[in-house]
Amino acid sequence: MKTLVQRVLGGDKRAAAKLISMIEDDEPGARKALRKLYRHTGKAHIVGFTGPPGAGKSTLISRLIKEFRKRKKTVGVIAVDPTSPFTGGAILGDRVRMPEASLDPRVFIRSMATRGHAGGLALATFDAVHVLEAFGADVVMVETVGAGQSEVEIAKRAHTTVVVEMPASGDAVQILKAGILEVGDVYVVNKADLEGADAMVSNLELVIPERSKGWRPPVLRTTASEGTGVEEVAEQLEKHWRHLHASGELAVRERARAETELRGALAEAALHRLAAKPATERKLRRSIDRIAARETDVRTMAEELLG
Fold first, then answer.
1. pLDDT in tens, 83-136
2. Cα torsion at 12, 16, 21, 24 (round to 10°)?
3. Most buried residue, 24, 141, 201, 256, by CB count within 10 Å?
4. Quick one: what percent of the chain has pLDDT higher than 90?
5. If DSSP codes are grouped into helix, strand and coil, which group holds residue 134?
């Protein structure tokens, strides 16, 4: 009987789904499996999607899945959703938003909860990305919640970052929001059939700076619900992937990605070790009382607990 790792490497969707569930639940064996799979990662093009809620990111991704499948590519999608305060799981469901694509054996779609992680991108999200890389995905698309720190954080984790905007959100304040102009490699004005699309495109083209290594982020128009402009988005994503290889920027981004993941893993490991110590809960309560009473500050208390 094949092991779970062998089945994932063989492109078994059920095995990939099981391993991702194990990762989310922090089950025994998940880390060992990831360790074995990691040497088989690093070939997929990881594309992050961010932008305000309601801009149509899910619809655009579902159309891009079809476009990449036409190009004979295996596709993985991780849709990061807000966490339910009752179950701890993802509030939205991937198969609700992308029903047709999920039936394709060469397409893997998974919703994952933020689980309260700062920035909305839990460490498990990118463990899942590694699973999809090992599964054989040529392209892995990661859709963020599209609010707060996740808008900027995805740029540290993806090879190509797509910022999706829409005319209804398009005043100068929205498009000039801190960080948004720096993170995008490709900008998409979706719902371009609505009033204000021309102004949004013009404003973005005016203020977006050229990236390092000579990449000028394109500003594209789509009406994803009708499939309009989606082919051009796929073309630009592939063009940026080729640019990363040719310019040497891919190695830079891979190192930045590794650093971000390592720092996240270190923080998580420190919390696990702290929680594993006897009487930790009592110490935490006393520490909280001392901080609230202004007897000590948060950073000093954190160092003391870790020490």
1. 433 334 444 444 445 656 667 889 999 988 654 444 445 678 889 999 999 999
2. 180
3. 141
4. 48
5. helix
Beta-bridge partners for 186: 162
Predicted local distance difference test score (pLDDT) of residue 2: 73
SS3 301: helix
Query: Do the beta carbons of residue 161 and residue 50 sit within 8 Å?
Result: yes
Question: Which residues on adjacent β-strands are paired with residue 47?
Answer: 141, 160
Amino acid at 57: K
Query: Do 113 and 82 form a contact (C-beta atoms < 8 A)?
Result: yes
Domains, the chain: 42-249 (3.40.50.300), 262-306 (no CATH)
Q: What is the 3-state secondary structure (H, E, C) of 224-276?
A: HHHCECHHHHHHHHHHHHHHHHHHCHHHHHHHHHHHHHHHHHHHHHHHHHHHH
Q: Amino acid letter at 56? A: G
Residues 47 and 159 sit within 8 Å (Cβ to Cβ): yes
CA distances in angstroms from 179 to 151, 155, 185, 218, listed in the order given:
8, 10, 13, 17
Q: What would the pLDDT profile of 134-148 be if each residue is shown by its tens digit?
A: 999 999 999 987 655
Total-model pTM? 0.85
Task: Tell me the sheet residues that pair with 142.
Answer: 48, 78
Between helix 123-135 and helix 13-24 the angle, nearest 10°, is 160
CA separation for the pair 162, 23 (Å, rounded): 27
- Please report the beta strands in the chain, taking only residues with DSSP state E, as ranges in sequence order: 45-50, 75-81, 107-113, 139-143, 160-165, 186-189, 219-221
- CA nearest to 125, candidates 29, 48, 237: 48
Q: What is the DSSP letter of 90?
A: B
